[in-house]
């Protein structure tokens, strides 16, 4: 057999394996969203993927391994998302525009990957996913605080910046749960409510540093 054919065979096997793994992870995401992690089973995941349990076990020894692989991939993608969503803001940017752009990116991620919320915020997530979530939360909180520091008054104490970042993240997570519980126009309405809440909270803290003097309403007639 020619050398190029010998090299192509492992590549094709690897490509098939990657496609099969992606198929299994997509099926697992659907099952975890429908039943929750605890009630999910490898048989249900294999059935959703249209493969035999034996095929699934060639890639994953159990459902925890599937959840961990899925969680790690989503965490990596989310880190890319908040790298874009929490990029430095031009001081001339209106507050509602800055808040809206960040919220839209995070909401889009969670709507495209509803299993992320199911895995990261469920009561029964595997230990390694819980550790990933804690690390992600700490990093995200740090990024929000860093962004807030760039447009809050310069004499704002660090403890106040951290508290404000905690509130922003807490409000977002509470709003996200409501957003994901609705669809269509009602979902869009909840997204707008979430943006309005964050803008009204931040507006008096930001003052003239981001597009509007202190006390000015978020919208005008």
Automatic annotation (TrEMBL):
<dbReference type="Pfam" id="PF17928">
    <property type="entry name" value="TetR_C_22"/>
</dbReference>
<feature type="domain" description="HTH tetR-type">
    <location>
        <begin position="18"/>
        <end position="78"/>
    </location>
</feature>
<dbReference type="InterPro" id="IPR023772">
    <property type="entry name" value="DNA-bd_HTH_TetR-type_CS"/>
</dbReference>
<dbReference type="InterPro" id="IPR009057">
    <property type="entry name" value="Homeodomain-like_sf"/>
</dbReference>
<dbReference type="Pfam" id="PF00440">
    <property type="entry name" value="TetR_N"/>
</dbReference>
<dbReference type="InterPro" id="IPR050109">
    <property type="entry name" value="HTH-type_TetR-like_transc_reg"/>
</dbReference>
<dbReference type="GO" id="GO:0000976">
    <property type="term" value="F:transcription cis-regulatory region binding"/>
</dbReference>
<dbReference type="InterPro" id="IPR041674">
    <property type="entry name" value="TetR_C_22"/>
</dbReference>
<protein>
    <submittedName>
        <fullName>TetR family transcriptional regulator</fullName>
    </submittedName>
</protein>
<feature type="DNA-binding region" description="H-T-H motif">
    <location>
        <begin position="41"/>
        <end position="60"/>
    </location>
</feature>
<dbReference type="GO" id="GO:0003700">
    <property type="term" value="F:DNA-binding transcription factor activity"/>
</dbReference>
<keyword id="KW-0238">DNA-binding</keyword>
<dbReference type="InterPro" id="IPR001647">
    <property type="entry name" value="HTH_TetR"/>
</dbReference>
């Amino acid at each position: 057999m020619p050398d190029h054919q010998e090299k192509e065979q492992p590549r094709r096997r690897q490509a098939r394996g990657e496609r099969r793994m992606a198929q299994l992870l997509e099926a697992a995401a659907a099952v975890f969203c429908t039943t929750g992690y605890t009630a999910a089973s490898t048989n249900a995941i294999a059935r959703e993927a249209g493969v035999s349990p034996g095929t699934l076990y060639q890639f994953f020894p159990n459902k925890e391994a599937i959840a961990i692989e899925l969680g790690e991939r989503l965490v990596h993608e989310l880190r890319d998302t908040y790298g874009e969503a929490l990029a430095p803001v031009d001081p001339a940017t209106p507050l509602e525009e800055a808040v809206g752009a960040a919220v839209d990116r995070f909401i889009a991620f969670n709507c495209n990957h509803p299993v992320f919320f199911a895995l990261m915020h469920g009561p029964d997530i595997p230990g390694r996913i819980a550790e990933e979530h804690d690390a992600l939360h700490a990093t995200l909180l740090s990024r929000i605080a860093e962004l807030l520091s760039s447009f809050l008054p310069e004499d704002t104490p660090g403890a106040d910046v951290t508290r404000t970042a905690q509130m922003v993240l807490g409000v977002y997570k509470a709003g996200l749960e409501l957003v994901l519980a609705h669809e269509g126009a009602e979902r869009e309405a909840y997204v707008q409510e979430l943006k309005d809440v964050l803008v009204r909270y931040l507006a008096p803290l930001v003052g003239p540093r981001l597009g509007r003097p202190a006390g000015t309403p978020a919208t005008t007639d």
